[in-house]
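Quick note —
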Amino acid sequence: MFDIQEELKKLPGKPGVYLMHDEKDEIIYVGKAISLKNRVRQYFQTSRNKGPKIEQMVTKIARFEYIITDSELEALVLECNLIKEHRPKYNTMLMDDKTYPFIKVTVKEAYPRVLFSREMKKDKSKYFGPYTSAGAVKDTIELIRKIYKLRTCNRNLPKDAGKERPCLNYHIKQCDAPCQGYISEEAYAEKVKKAMDFLNGNFEPVLKDLEEKMLEASENLEFEQAIEYRELIGSVKQIAQKQKITNSDGEDKDIIAMASDKEDAVVQVFFVREGRLIGRDHFYLRIAPEEKPSEILSSFVKQFYAGTPFVPKELMLQTEIEDADVISEWLSSRKGQKVYLRVPKIGTKEKLVELAAKNAHLVLSQDKEKIKREEGRTIGAAKEIAGWLNLPHISRIEAFDISNISGFENVGSMVVYEKGKPKRSDYRKFKIKGVQGPDDYACMEEVLKRRFTHGLQEQENEETGGFSKFPDLVMMDGGKGQVNVALKVLDELRLNIPVCGMVKDDKHRTRGLYFENKEIPIDRGSEGFRLITRIQDEAHRFAIEYHRSLRTKDQVHSILDDIDGIGPARRKALMRAFQSLDEIRAADVETLADVPSMNRAAAEKVYEFFHKIKDTQGEEDR
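Predicted structure written out below.
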């Protein structure tokens, strides 16, 4: 038994991170402190005004733990990592998890390439960005390849030069074929240098060069070539216009401002790179009504820059934030040079921050109804289902389905919805191992046993795999029979998880939920019904997709393929005529010969094959 008052006495007066757990042992809050002893005690002091959000959180704390660090900076880094990992309920949470693209030039290679990248790695390549539009990045890369005729292949050059024929790009005059040695490393390097100048915003030389080539082609009556150059000039100008000049200092900075309304907040970020405003983006945060702008911006900065590979030299903020000195030190250590956090008061910079704030207010007002509708489709729909089933809450739903063709290649699917949205990283596929023939109940029993047994093992070993988290509700694609199979498995494993079935009408449409031995009618016009339909369709789609992949020639090896004289047509005919391989084994020659596409000679080969390997065939098939 965790005695909070006793544990408070043991807290050290050192910097570190503390984690608050509820009665289900889920982490509900992560915080950092210069002195753990002083900070954690404050939560449990009745005389302090903690605000509604913290007051509510404190009532749910069952225990806490802490990790000491050597400095407040280390505590900040650890806090960021733990918040991103556990996404605690009572922390101000950044709802978006976006990554921004870069343009990567592989300068370490003898013949460098220009590539699209979502990461900035320490691989000696040259990176440009990040950019806010993936489409614009792809357009820019395509334009650079056309202008400078740089290679797109991944051949190891010059080692593999001449080993293969040049690709299509050479023949359509979009590559100088270094793979054939048609261009020297020095000449190619000069083109790469010009491409990097272009990426740095130096557009004038390429525009001048293209205009000269267009005029020359026109004078030589090469009008098609002239039109190509004209189109390239238009593309260059379009990209140049997208990079608006913000100021002349040529530095990288992010301009950050916010707007909030009760439990919603939007942070707007303008991205300035080398003095150019290259784009903007907005981010939603989950907040408490009493949170101040300084607290919201502080939480945003820590979470956003913990996840982005690029840190600018300066953050221009709407207001002073908490822990500004520590955050500046942390960002400086990440960047490798000093990073400044500033709140401009006058001049152009102040106007830019004000503009960012106006955009944040605009997004918040425009998207308010959209956010509410989305919550109705997801969280609201899950609450509606919980109400129908008289459950306290539903956050995680798991749905299962079986797919087969006459018992061949039985497979199972598990799809997961959290807060009304699909969590595809937790989807799982099962190839049925212990069931022969079309027995959906037996297949479902195997799938559920494997899923929850694996989950119990992960929990016992304190692993955080895809099975360790159990659902608040299991949904079966069927009625009473499927529900009873699930309840039987859960009872054997001593797990108490609600199970309901999705009951269909004569037209194979969901008409209600089967729960606790009765059918519960549901409103077909409700968001809860629509969510159930989406879950049912997704479970079915995922199972069918997996089954289809196993049926392809490259991915499935049927035992029938090992029989001499049995090709695809006869194999399919046997699979249609018999419900399982056991039935094919048990059939006599006459029965096998009566199958369409078969003859007596083929039937004898099938009969002889199965009876020669009778003792080992079953295990092979599994």
